[in-house]
Amino acid sequence: MGSIPRRAAILISVAALTLIPACSAGSRTTGQQSQDPDKVNSLEVGMIAEPASLDFTRNDGAAIPQALLVNVYEGLVKLDANGEIVPLLATKWQVSPDRRTYTFTLHKDVTFSDGKPFTAEDAAFSINRVKTDWTTSLKAGMDVVDTAEATSPTILTVKLKRPSNSWLFAMTTRIGAMFSRTGVAELATKPIGTGPYVLDRWTRGNALVLKANPRYWGRKPTVRTVTLRYFKDPTAMNNALRTGGIDVVSTVQTPETLSEFKDKSKYHIIEGTTNGEVVLSFNNSKAPLTDRRVRLALRYAIDRKAVLDTAWAGHGTLIGSMVPPTDPWYEDLSTRYPHDPAQAKRLLAAAGVPKLTLRLRIPNLPYAVAIAQVVKSQLAEVGVTAQIDVLEFPARWLDEVYTKADYDLSIIAHVEPRDITSWGNPTYYWRYDNKQVQDLLARADAGTPQQQVAAMKQVARTLSDDAAADWLFLFPNLMVARPQVKGLPTNVVSEAFDLTAVSVSTS
After folding, report:
1. 409 shares a domain with 342
2. 423 shares a domain with 438
3. β-strand 268-282 against 197-203: which pairing, if any?
4. Which residue, of 26, 144, 147, 371, has the fewest CB within 10 Å?
5. Domain of 115, in residue numbers
6. Based on the domain organization, do 220 and 357 belong to the same domain?
7. CA distance to 118, 120, 158, 425, per residue, from 125 (Å)
């Protein structure tokens, strides 16, 4: 979600990053520049969506794993830049012929940031704890696990109740994070992980500071201190980049301002893709949105190309579904229900609601506010009045819209990978209950890879034809950085803002 949930984790929120002066991006602590990685100093990244807490086992929102996953917490596996599953804390794994037993071999001599050793006992504890102690909707990804047991300090055996195509992929997300058996008492403020960084301090409303983990088992990070600095105003974030207050703007919130950063001697613009679907959500359990004709009318009323061009300066991709092009079952469904105001009016009249007022409750994130104005105008053309209600994100939006489903329409970017599976959960905030979709998702998970692709394509088509929501566009990965900052991702396909490859040159 703004980047949150899919998780629900929705992406639900999309974040932003940083900047600094030319030729001296690391110059905040002068006199310490050298080839010694311990002496390479700082990086400041500008962000928009701040975590509500640091405990993603009990709090939804994409801002938490964005900051902590891979950087502070590691999993047995992770996604690489191409979206492929690769080893992390595990050196390798084997899958039994019946696809129900996974045997992981773990790295030796790994320690948590508090000095305690990481063993297969901790891995089993972490997997089992998802089912017993997690409270977020994402925990359902671990329901397929029957047992997780350490058979030696470095061997973990996980047995599934049934074959599952999605489980290992889910282990690359936050639910696959490895926790210390003795370090989970204060997760909201004191994360303890095996990653290359540790939490130094968090000043709410301002910044979260990560320091290089001196006990890290793997390759030491080049950048010793990373500050994620949170801005409520995207203009202020851009100004911070221009004046040397930050080094990176992680997610550009005002694409029309990119022309201000054309000077390649001062700035580097990165444009790629994400898996963040910007969704105009419908509350499928609330009349008149329980009527498919009304939902279809809303889809016909929206000119998605105009939304993209007007609200996001044309940056992004029209996809028409909850499936990004980086997923194996992607199909371009963007033209399935083209903009047709006359058809929208006919459907609303047939449903008995030619004039309609709906509450459009959105997070106070720049992209959502900008898009809402365009959507409101387009809906007005077909007789639908959208009453915009801007809610503080994450707290109020997550409570009132995501948790309580107290809304008619909303707009949020769902950034969790492969979050189309959320449509199989009737209690998810869009309150969509379709047995056909639930059955297709189950078949996709248990079937062969070919059966999975076919079933998932059918899920996307069914959701589109049922007008379960309107998928406006796919969020771009749009960043601006000082040219001295290297290793930033072109494409963002996981929940983490991976800092492990980032470096800052001294000239």
Report:
1. yes
2. yes
3. unpaired
4. 147
5. 77-176
6. no
7. 11, 8, 12, 26
Same domain, 251 and 354: no
How far apart (Å, rounded) are the C-alpha atoms in residues 290 and 432? 10
Separation between Cα atoms, residue 157 and residue 389, nearest integer Å: 49
User: What's the rounded Cα separation, in Å, for the pair 278 and 256?
Assistant: 18
Answer for the pair 122, 107: CB distance below 8 angstroms, yes or no: no
The CA–CA distances, whole Å, from 206 to 2, 108, 191, 201 equal: 17, 38, 19, 11
Q: Is beta strand 248-249 parallel, antiparallel or unpaired with respect to 42-47?
A: parallel
Both 387 and 435 in one domain: the answer is yes
Length of the chain, in residues? 507
Query: What SS3 class is residue 110?
Result: coil
Task: Looking at the structure, tell me whether residues 300 and 267 fall in a common domain.
Answer: no
The partner residues of 201 in beta bridges, in order of sequence, read 209
Same domain, 278 and 247: no
Tell whether omega for the bond before 394 is within 30 degrees of 0, i.e. cis.
Answer: yes
Report pLDDT for 311: 95
The helix or strand, by DSSP H or E, that contains position 86, with its residue range, turns out to be: strand 85-87
Q: What letter represents residue 192's amino acid? A: I
What is the DSSP code string of 258-305?
GGGG--TTT-EEEEEEEEEEEEEEE-TTSTTTTSHHHHHHHHHH--HH
Q: Which residue has the tokens 């502070």?
A: 72
Q: What is the C-alpha to C-alpha distance for residues 457 and 466, in angstroms, rounded to an integer?
A: 14
Residue 15 lies in a domain: no
pLDDT digits (tens, 9 = 90+) for 114-163: 999 999 999 999 999 999 999 998 899 999 999 999 999 999 999 999 99
The segments of the chain whose pLDDT lies below 70 read 1-40, 507
Distance CA 72, CA 198 (A): 6
Last residue of a domain, one of 126, 142, 176: 176
Give tens-digit pLDDT for 153-174.
Answer: 999 999 999 999 999 999 999 9
Taking residue 450's Cβ as centre, other Cβ atoms within 10 Å add up to 8
**Shared domain check, 290 and 153:** no
Kindly list the distances between the CA atom of residue 217 and the CA atoms of 67, 70, 414, in Å, as whole numbers in the listed order: 20, 13, 33
C-alpha 86: how far from its chain's center?
Answer: 19
> Does residue 288 have a cis bond before it (omega within 30 degrees)?
yes
> Does this model's pTM top 0.90?
no
